[in-house]
Amino acid sequence: QKDMPLEDFVAVLDDVKARNSAKKLTICITGGEPLLRSDLEDAGKEIVKRGFNWGIVTNGLAFSTERFISLIKAGMTSMSFSLDGFEEQHNHLRQNKNSYERVMNAIRTVVKFQKANPGYFVFDVITCVHKGNLAILPELRDFLISEGVEKWRIFSIFPEGRAEKNDLSLNREEYVQLMDFITET
């Protein structure tokens, strides 16, 4: 399916702007994968022209330092990376043997940027909790802290797309385990 043309995106932005205060909203571009859009910087500049902050949620596969700098110059002020476990769990869920290495390189790049530019940029890591990674959450939390990640969001898997075809959804006892982990953390 083709991405929404930039002109249509801008029309939607104008509609959002007409109905909302730019001070109360941040525009978040999600996927598929937003870094595959060749006009992402142009979309970002249009968002900024209308007074909104903006960011993306990415799997990090198409991330590069050059693209990151280009997005910052286009006004991007937040970025979220999907990380669903360590190499085995993450690559299995993402169905790509390079996914973990790529996202970790991206996370490390942004941690360095954030430390060099405190208060300028917001970023976090998002983990989709499922049967295959529930047990490693404490270890993953500690690892992310050791990597300098200050913000981590977790949520349970939603049975759509590939997740619908796999039995990854948490059962009642696993949800309790997840809530206990959140309380402990």
Walk me through the topology:
Layout: H1 6-19, E1 26-29, H2 40-49, E2 53-58, H3 65-73, E3 78-82, H4 87-94, H5 99-116, E4 122-129, H6 137-146, E5 152-156, H7 162-165, H8 172-184
Parallel strand pairs: 1-2, 2-3, 3-4, 4-5
Q: Explain this structure to me?
A:
- This protein is globular.
- The protein has helices at about 5-20, 40-50, 65-75, 85-95, 100-115, 135-145, 160-165, 170-185; strands spanning about 25-30, 55-60, 80, 120-130, 150-155.
- Strands 1-2-3-4-5 form a 5-stranded parallel β-sheet.
- It is of the alpha/beta class.
- It is built from 8 helices and 5 strands, in the order αβαβαβααβαβαα.
- Helix 1 (about 5-20) runs parallel beside helix 2 (about 40-50).
Q: What is the count of β-strands?
A: 5
Pairing-aware structural class of the strands and helices?
alpha/beta
Helix content: 40-55%
Q: What's the story with the biggest beta sheet?
A: 5 strands, parallel
Strand order of the largest sheet: 1-2-3-4-5
Please give the alpha-carbon distance between the first and last residues. 40 Å
Number of helices: 8
Stretches where pLDDT falls below 50 for ≥5 residues? none
Tertiary shape: globular
Order of helices and strands: HEHEHEHHEHEHH
Beta-strand percent range: 15-25%
**Multimeric status of the protein:** single chain
| Integer-rounded radius of gyration | 17 Å
Mean pLDDT: 93
What's the short story on this structure?
The protein is α/β, with parallel strands linked by helices.
